[in-house]
Amino acid sequence: MPKIIEKRVLTPITKMFRFDAPMIASAARPGQFVILRVREGGERIPLTIADFDAKSGVVTIVVQEVGVTSRILGAHKVGDNILDVLGPLGEPAHIPPGGHVVGIGGGFGSAALWCLMRELKERGDRTTVILGARHDHLLLLIDELREVCDNLELCTDDGSVGFKGLVTERLQQLMDGPGKPDHVIAIGPMPMMRAIANTTRDTGIATQVSMDPLMIDGTGMCGCCRVSVGDDVKFACVDGPLFDAAKVDFDEAVKRNKMYVKEEKLAAERQQKIMEEATHAS
Amino acid sequence: MPAKRIKKTPMLERNAKLRATDFMEVNEGYSKAAAAFEAERCLRCQDPICVAGCPVHIPIPEFIHEIAAGNMPRAAEILRSANPLPAVCGRVCPQEDQCEKVCHMAKRFKPVGIGYLERYVADWERAQPKSEDAKKPTRSQRIAVVGAGPAGLVCAGDLARLGYPVTIYEGLHAPGGVLRYGIPEFRLPNEILDWEIDQLRALGVEIVCNVVVGKTLQLDDLFDKMGYSAVFIGTGAGLPKFLGIPGENFNGVYSANEFLTRINLMQSYKFPETDTPLYIGKRVAVIGAGNTAMDAIRSALRVGAEKGMSIYRRSQKEMTARVEEYHHALEEGVEFHWLTNPIEIIGNDKGMVTGVKCARMELGKQDESGRARPIPIKGSEFVIPLDNIVLSLGNSPNPLLVNNTPGLEKNKHGCLIMKNDTPQTSKKWVYAGGDAVTGAATVILAAGAGKDAAAAIHKDLSEVVV
Ligand SMILES: Cc1cc2nc3c(=O)[nH]c(=O)nc-3n(C[C@H](O)[C@H](O)[C@H](O)COP(=O)(O)OP(=O)(O)OC[C@H]3O[C@@H](n4cnc5c(N)ncnc54)[C@H](O)[C@@H]3O)c2cc1C
Ligand code: FES
């Protein structure tokens, strides 16, 4: 059971954890993810690997508290163990070297850009990161990301910091100017990824999005994670999670992710109550 | 003396209406008297062809004779020496296609209840004080097993008994393979699997879950970095097939693997006590008529479906499910639509499945599988309204490990290629068995393959030492 060695509260509902997992840390590549479980009877949820260090054997993840498992994980403390962690899963990001790569992160998706952009910068690519959120205090890991790219751009809906507007608007400006990207890689909420896919469609800019369908095993055994990509049906856990943005059927993906909203809400509320009662009691 | 009673001594079964609402075992097992009574029906043939009919050649008349003589410890010993998973196989083997099919009694009467007796002996054994003492490995060559399904478990157990330190690496969070995530508890209670796994741990076998070989570790790492002397691959056939017809990605359409994994491994029928949800509507159909299909549709009834059906493009004669499972499904109210081929899955604008469009079929000439080929009847299309569809079209070996391992060869079906029918793969010191080699087959074949591989590994390693 991997032990948590560091915890940071990034926003009230977004936590970063570093935990000991030497095997995962030495096998991981940017773009991959882990599947974890936090209690007996618990569900298996996928989380992107934000960072990893083979030498120290430490893996970093960022989790946003939305459902039962993420809430329970969010309440974990330094020294606690995570019941089950499986990884690294999925195909690593493949980006041909030498170009200008623009990484776009929305919400906690920015965490996933961390190790990827560092690796691209280290191998000599020109790197830009665009982070987007509603307000400035929802932008995550700004300092960490600034360190691992040549150019960090911030976008907020309310203009509280950086560019006032959507990440796609800033991306469009880059595309129209001298900083035209060769590759775009977007990780974040589905509407954002879909908007980016539409922005770069038919421009010849290779664009990848990181799909996050529901998953169970993460090894290609169940097909729960299937995503339509062009004429093919892909399993995101083994063929992805990164896919050609222009070919992804977002309509279907959005619907598939909503399959259990009712149940998820019920379970999350139930868990919230249990946790509140526990804090009251102690 | 053998008694020529025509009928098999029946096994008690729980009432179909009652049992179809829970996950407790359907069959209740023989009593001591019933087992003795049935054991007396065995003719103790000079030429026991039942033994030849058994994939692992259990000395069937011998263990049955010991039951009749009341010598249960001996019966258990004989049985276990040939089949390391008797409590499992006594419950899930297709006996009617194996030992009981060729039983001499079957020519004029009903065959001896070999499966029931196997189960009886194994259950007796489980109720005894612990049989195997904790053991310390006596050899220095360490062995890694990939996959904790029946093939891997049996291989590990045999090697541990020979004194090797053995580690099993399993991708999921719990060992057992299909026995854990696929076969439901009303056929195979978890407690039986857990007992078998406890036995292995007592033998000193180490089981490490949450490791996918090919991802977390590479196969070559097991040798180069971790110092194992040999590796057994028992990764099964866990890749689900889909139909490739429109509408398969509508919500409420599950592969049987997903459906059963949610219920068995993730225990979603206890939601929200457990955390994994499952959506089940009123009308549920499984596409297919094999063991997996029966498990899925009978599970669907247990988690709340009002109507359960099986839709199959061939006829009842070609159905691959065990006869017992088919009968149990009928008793529990499952409807069978033979010669019916799904051509399109229909859904609403929210992305939920609402039905399946099918064509009626007739049987033509034999196809390459040796079965009559179903041919669509023109203009026969019709729609069956449904809330869920479970696709049970078979599984092929998961390509994850092979694709990531240089030197490991597979055939066009994705099955590992073996050296001249030995348990050895195309890679030195790498052995394999079970569904990963044969494609989706049976528990007993997987167990037998694990056993053969353990013997081969032992033989090859012994030759290196001298
Ligand atoms: C629903 C269902 C019902 C069935 N009913 C019957 C029945 O009644 N009677 C019968 O005889 N047979 C039945 N079968 C078939 C039987 O279960 C299989 O033939 C048998 O389990 C095969 O055993 P195995 O050890 O080869 O593989 P599996 O049982 O498939 O086990 C393989 C294990 O390896 C793990 N694994 C895979 N890849 C990796 C990797 N790269 N690294 C680490 N671990 C890995 C998997 O997670 C799994 O736990 C049924 C099958 C299903 C699906
Ligand atoms: S999560 Fe099961 S196949 Fe991808």
What characteristics describe this protein?
heterodimer, A: 282 residues, alpha/beta, Elongation Factor Tu (Ef-tu), domain 3, Rossmann fold, 2 domains, seven-stranded mixed β-sheet, six-stranded antiparallel β-sheet, 15 strands, 30% strand, B: 466 residues, Fumarate Reductase Iron-sulfur Protein, Chain B, domain 2, FAD/NAD(P)-binding domain, 3 domains, five-stranded parallel β-sheet, binds flavin-adenine dinucleotide, binds FE2/S2 (inorganic) cluster
Task: Determine the fraction of residues in helical runs of chain A and give it as a percent range.
Answer: 25-40%
Number of strands of chain B: 16
Shape of chain B: globular
Strand element count of chain A: 15
**By CATH's scheme, which homologous superfamily of the largest domain in chain B applies?**
FAD/NAD(P)-binding domain
Order of SSEs of chain A, N→C? EEHEEEHEEHEHEEHEHEEEHEHH
Number of separate domains of chain B? 3
Poorly predicted parts of chain B: none
What does this structure look like?
The complex is a heterodimer of chains A (282) and B (466). Chain A is an alpha/beta fold and 282 residues long. Chain A has 2 domains: 4-89, Translation factors (Elongation Factor Tu (Ef-tu), domain 3); 100-257, Rossmann fold (3-Layer(aba) Sandwich). Chain A contains 9 helices and 15 strands. Chain A has helices at residues 22-27, 68-74, 110-122, 142-147, 167-176, 190-200, 236-239, 250-257, 261-281; strands at residues 4-11, 14-20, 33-37, 45-53, 58-64, 84-89, 100-106, 126-133, 151-156, 163-164, 183-187, 206-210, 226-229, 232-235, 242-244. The radius of gyration of chain A is 18 Å and the shape is globular. Chain A starts with a strand and ends with a helix. With 466 residues, chain B is an alpha/beta fold. Chain B has 3 domains: 10-126, Fumarate Reductase Iron-sulfur Protein, Chain B, domain 2 (Orthogonal Bundle); 143-238 and 396-462, FAD/NAD(P)-binding domain, CATH 3.50.50; 242-393, FAD/NAD(P)-binding domain (3-Layer(bba) Sandwich). In chain B, strands 3-2-1-4-16 form a 5-stranded parallel beta sheet. In chain B, strands 6-14-7-8-9 form a 5-stranded parallel beta sheet. In chain B, strands 10, 11, 12 and 13 form a 4-stranded antiparallel beta sheet that branches. In chain B, helix 4 (60-68) runs antiparallel to helix 5. The mean pLDDT of chain B is 92. The chains are: A alpha/beta (282), B alpha/beta (466). Flavin-adenine dinucleotide binds at residues 92-93, 146-152, 169-172, 177-178, 182-183, 212-214, 234-236, 238, 260, 291-292, 295, 322, 398, 400-401, 434-436, 440-444, 446 of chain B.
